[in-house]
Amino acid sequence: MFNKEVYENRRKALISKMCAAAAEGQRGLAIFIGNVDAPAQYKDNCYKFRQDSTWLYFWGLDNPGYAAIIDLDNGVEIIYADDIEIGDIIWMGPQPSVSSLAASVGVDRSAPSDAFGKAVSEAIAHGRRIHFVPASRYYNVLKLRELGLDDKKPSVDLIKAIISLRLIKEPCEIAQLDDACNLGYEMHTVARNNVRIGILEQEIVGKMDGMTLGKGWGVSFPTILSQHGETLHNHLHDKIVEPGKLMVIDAGCENNMHYPSDHTRTLPTSGKFTSKQRDIYQIVCDCNNYAFSQTRPGVAYRDVHIKTMRMMLERLSALDIVRGDIDSMVEIGIAGLFQPHGLGHAIGLDVHDMEDYGENFVGYDEDQTRSSQLGLGSLRMARRLVPGNVISDEPGIYFIPALIELWKKEGTDKGFVNYAKLEEYYDFGGIRLEDDVLVTSDGARRLGDQRLPIEPDEVEEAMKR
Amino acid sequence: MFNKEVYENRRKALISKMCAAAAEGQRGLAIFIGNVDAPAQYKDNCYKFRQDSTWLYFWGLDNPGYAAIIDLDNGVEIIYADDIEIGDIIWMGPQPSVSSLAASVGVDRSAPSDAFGKAVSEAIAHGRRIHFVPASRYYNVLKLRELGLDDKKPSVDLIKAIISLRLIKEPCEIAQLDDACNLGYEMHTVARNNVRIGILEQEIVGKMDGMTLGKGWGVSFPTILSQHGETLHNHLHDKIVEPGKLMVIDAGCENNMHYPSDHTRTLPTSGKFTSKQRDIYQIVCDCNNYAFSQTRPGVAYRDVHIKTMRMMLERLSALDIVRGDIDSMVEIGIAGLFQPHGLGHAIGLDVHDMEDYGENFVGYDEDQTRSSQLGLGSLRMARRLVPGNVISDEPGIYFIPALIELWKKEGTDKGFVNYAKLEEYYDFGGIRLEDDVLVTSDGARRLGDQRLPIEPDEVEEAMKR
């Protein structure tokens, strides 16, 4: 945990924002429901506990079954949880009291769990507003319904206030993100050192994920490791590593403070790229570097996405994969055929930060409208950047036969795509290269002490054993 | 997956049992809700998918978002799920159709997901019975409520029918359990080879859990690895390994077919037991072997528990930790102070098999009543054993200061406990030794090819590096 002042200051800032949004006496309660253990099988066999990120941000305590209320009309903060009993001591050992844990994050009032529901019911009976965030877990949906609240109607005021705080990382958070990215560097090094023709993909994943459990909380999202990179989120690892393939590894480590890394590298399974692979790889690599060079305060990341896609199309044009006027291609979104996802997303306590609060609230300024184009429409972070933003920079090129056939059939490309040439790439797979970037006062820096090898020569050198 | 005949036969057996429980036309529907992905953070960042065990048992398909209905009045079986669309193909790659997956487990009818709710609603409207099992996951609670069913009122007929089938393992399941126990052997070997003074417990756990992910689905339950074995379910691994401690490691691997292992070993962190440690360790080791020797068809495991506790008390009496008449001590349950848990539980697709269906339904014959004594009251498997049962054999001795003080204060021990002697053990910790046992036609055998080192000399030898 951070010092208690960190949490006190965040709650003060939140209260201040919420108070600005409504008159005194009209503000109501902001309620926070921490996570409970999530059953993997039966109720007592659970997945590794992961606390809710907003809970961690404001209340710090990494224990299941906690809740809290801030009374926005008088500033009173109360944490709700139950102290353990003798039966629990046998199973769980002696535990600090709820009140001492509350005090450790600067909260001087605590109460048993059942008082939480009573306090909310009473406030509802008095016609007070109840502010809550969207429920990500099914437990929270149930809990909100049991409290008599409509889980489909979270508080937009609270969502916006939280997003405005969490999007700008404090120095103590940046230190954690650097730490997580150092673990991510190690995780990808483990991956690279274990790619060997003939072994099962799952064995590499086991070594990577084991490392994250040994040094951090675990993976920050399910590891993607695939010789079919054209399948963007492939979570199966049941293939044997074959020679001559490209292996996309999109994987991150969550450290013990729950800050994540999120890096993607694409490795030639044989240790050397073919020249065809290298041509495409170099485009993606250059797009990654170009996007980073464009990242600084005041620039809209939407524009960085679009400029990067322009560069990608120019380079694909040089390979005769697309043909014609680049401006027109950018305009109608031809790049989406090759990169059907956005350039990046915000990163914080959630690896896609606050995704369930609404991607547009998180990633779009109020005057920005989300595109409906394939690719640009999936861009999660479009905002004008400010110092303290942390984002991913992850261009990719994929050759997805089903998607190419669909565009061809429906004429989506308006004649800009050279389908005859594209056929040569049906078995190519895909490439993605991703770094994690902090927006600084005058530019940007990549998080972590060292950058993972990314230039094709560097990658081939690193794979020599 | 197993051959489709395995699933067809299981469903046939289930239908036959359910038909015996009610007259034709009165039987209604048995509904099965497979698991969905469980969010760890936001909805698209989920824990590794774990299918529901009863779903796996009858329907085999290891995919999220599936449901099924058996119409018990006409034997019709339908699997419900949605085929993927082009947008999903980009993210997930081409996938087999629902109808082809259904056919692979012997089901010739399938329908889209929304037809499931309609079929259930229609049956309810016609006053037909809807049989369902208890919901373990919050999603299933929500789903049952949305279907208009009371999640608190599962079908006892269906529960009993499923338990009667799943408690007796088929040869194909025994092969899987042997395989899982071989992985469990490897997991504990990794643990033993990595215990080193000065390292963080978490590092050992990372290596163990990484191995399970590399060769199987992952851990069959959260790994317990603790130098405070007296805390029975300690999931924190934040301590440095210290010399002279006892480390309890209760951990298992789930293989890719979702069959688990569940072994406990207790290691001296320095590689050698002190003589005080060895005295207690030998008692637990002998209790484990004795319990195994008593395990065979026709014997109630409750009696094996009680006889093993008698042996434990005799041996503790020889150390002057308890004093007096052994029969009386057994009668009033003095062993519960040292082993406040049961001797074992059923093992199957769930590592505590079907625990959420009701421990008494799973573990007690109809004429057996559960004890209220500490220890015996926690016994999960009391039944008269039959060939095909798979159970754990896990005696333990723990010195739990909070519990000892409570017994002393309340006189629970009726004078049989020598508290003066016990004080010498307040910093001892605990010991548990657990194997997985199959009841055979004429006795029992431990699952897996090799038994993990268990005799104190064997353990010390194995720890020499």
What secondary-structure arrangement, pairings included, does this model have?
2 copies of one chain form a homodimer.
Chain A: H1 4-20, E1 29-33, H2 53-59, E2 67-71, E3 77-80, H3 86-92, H4 98-104, E4 110-111, H5 114-125, E5 130-131, H6 138-146, H7 156-166, H8 171-194, H9 201-215, E6 218-219, E7 224-226, E8 246-251, E9 253-254, E10 263-268, H10 275-294, H11 301-318, H12 326-332, H13 359-363, E11 390-393, E12 396-398, H14 401-410, H15 419-422, E13 430-432, E14 435-439, E15 444-446, H16 456-463
Parallel strand pairs in A: 1-5, 3-4
Antiparallel strand pairs in A: 1-2, 2-3, 6-9, 7-8, 8-10, 11-14, 12-13, 14-15
Structure description:
With 465 residues, chain A is of the alpha+beta class. Chain A has helices spanning 4-20, 53-59, 86-92, 98-104, 114-125, 138-146, 156-166, 171-194, 201-215, 275-294, 301-318, 326-332, 359-363, 401-410, 419-422, 456-463; strands at 29-33, 67-71, 77-80, 110-111, 130-131, 218-219, 224-226, 246-251, 253-254, 263-268, 390-393, 396-398, 430-432, 435-439, 444-446. Chain A has a 5-stranded mixed beta sheet with strand order 4-3-2-1-5, sandwiched between helices. In chain A, strands 7-8-10 form a 3-stranded antiparallel beta sheet, covered by helices on one side. The model of chain A has no long low-confidence stretch (mean pLDDT 96). Chains A and B meet through helix 3, helix 6, helix 9 and helix 14 of A and helix 3, helix 6, helix 9 and helix 14 of B.
